[in-house]
Design a protein that fits this description.
This protein has about 400 residues and is of the alpha/beta class. Helix content is about 40%, strand content about 15%.
Length: about 400
């Protein structure tokens, strides 16, 4: 039986870009390799990065992408900021957005079409999966590939609902769906079950959910000394500033001697007395989780309010055996059992009480973390998700 082959077009493969989905893509691609897929990855931003689990193809518009990123960064600095910020509520499709899309359609899109046609011709993949590349930038490409080669083309959006037009995505990237046509794709895969109807409203002919997960070999309990009481790691506080105040700012002031630490950057709201660690390298993240007595899952409002919108963090924390305290997240009980595998708090009072209880009883915290890891091993690894994705694609692998 021929080894099934997937051509993956990735938003980025280089972890230095700090795109939130990239570490998760690495784990999913490793999971696909483990179940028997030959994967070829070509990046939309940055250079290709080789690994033991996939082959690479070049980025045909690398220079243009880096030039645009430098220009965008320069404009942000002129405004005295790191990013060009968008509103958290139905951000407009600005003149700059429309000019950017027009330039991309004239210069970048044709180059990517030719690049993918050559790759499909040489690799003969069973499917093409586009991983969180701004959908509008590939307008016309899925139709052209399907008509010429008869190969299914799938869009995998790992940022729903934040990527939807009413939220507009992160300030580091694009608004995916302005100027896009989701009906060009045979399937739109989403991390959010609750966002599927909205994707269909936007034009998707077929939309299915594949939740995030964790690689339990990478995210595993580490035998390290405890170095902090409570840890939160995240890419900024957009869409979660009120919960940062309730779960970080207020408790850090209320609990004398509490060592609260924040990893990551771009925290613009109330973080109280928490100490800032800066970026935590991805290869040190699992160790940092184990070095904290309590770990926080603070889900952005966009994901927390649309039911069953998975994020990576609860699965990663659980796989590492962490005692997890989370803000309310619609559907979290689908993945972890509240009260047994995660503690869900509704305000600063409940957060403060939860930290105090777990810190006073390390045995309780350790047992909760062990139950959470067992749940991940049973249901939420990337091998589970790889099997689900292949089933949706109609791709069969040889029995192992």
């Amino acid at each position: 039986m021929r080894t099934p082959r997937i051509l993956a077009v990735a938003s980025a493969v280089d972890l230095d870009f700090r795109y939130g989905c990239t570490p998760a893509w690495w784990q999913l691609w490793k999971g696909l390799y483990e179940v028997g897929v030959d994967l070829v990855v070509t990046p939309y931003r940055g250079r290709p990065v080789e690994s033991p689990w996939w082959r690479t193809a070049p980025n045909p518009a690398h220079r243009e992408g880096e030039t645009y990123a430098a220009l965008r960064g320069g404009l942000a600095r002129l405004k005295g900021d790191r990013y060009l910020r968008r509103s958290e509520h139905s951000p407009e499709d600005s003149t700059l957005d429309r000019l950017t899309r027009g330039t991309i359609w004239r210069v970048v899109t044709p180059r990517w079409r030719r690049h993918l046609e050559r790759l499909v011709e040489s690799e003969r993949p069973d499917a093409i999966v586009v991983f969180t590349v701004p959908m509008a930038h590939f307008r016309g490409i899925p139709t052209a590939l399907r008509e010429r080669f008869g190969v299914p083309v799938v869009f995998y959006d790992g940022d729903v609902p934040m990527s939807l037009p009413e939220f507009g995505g992160m300030d580091t990237g694009f608004n995916y769906y302005h100027g896009a046509d989701p009906s060009e794709y045979d399937l739109v895969v989403s991390n959010s079950e609750g966002g599927l109807d909205r994707l269909r409203e936007l034009g998707a002919r077929r939309a299915e959910a594949v939740f995030w997960a964790a690689d339990p070999e990478f995210f595993a309990p580490a035998a390290v000394a405890k170095e902090m009481d409570v840890l939160f790691y995240g890419y900024g506080d957009k869409f979660r500033r009120e919960w940062m105040e309730a779960m970080v700012g207020e408790p850090s002031r209320r609990l004398p001697g509490l060592d609260m630490a924040l990893g990551g950057r771009d925290f613009r709201g109330d973080v109280g007395r928490a100490r800032l660690l800066g970026d935590v390298p991805f290869n040190a993240f699992s160790r940092a989780i184990s070095a904290a007595r309590v770990n926080l899952n603070i889900t952005r409002r966009s994901h927390a309010t649309v039911p069953f919108s998975s994020t990576c963090r609860p699965f990663e924390l659980a796989a590492a055996g962490a005692a997890i305290v989370s803000n309310p997240h619609a559907g979290i009980e689908r993945w972890l059992e509240p009260g047994s595998e995660v503690i869900v708090v509704g305000n600063a009072d409940e957060a403060t009480d939860a930290y105090a209880a777990l810190l006073d009883d390390p045995g309780q915290a350790e047992a909760m973390g062990a139950r959470a890891r067992e749940r991940v091993l049973d249901e939420h690894t990337y091998r589970h998700r790889a099997a689900r994705l292949l089933d949706l694609l109609g791709v069969t692998v040889a029995a192992s």
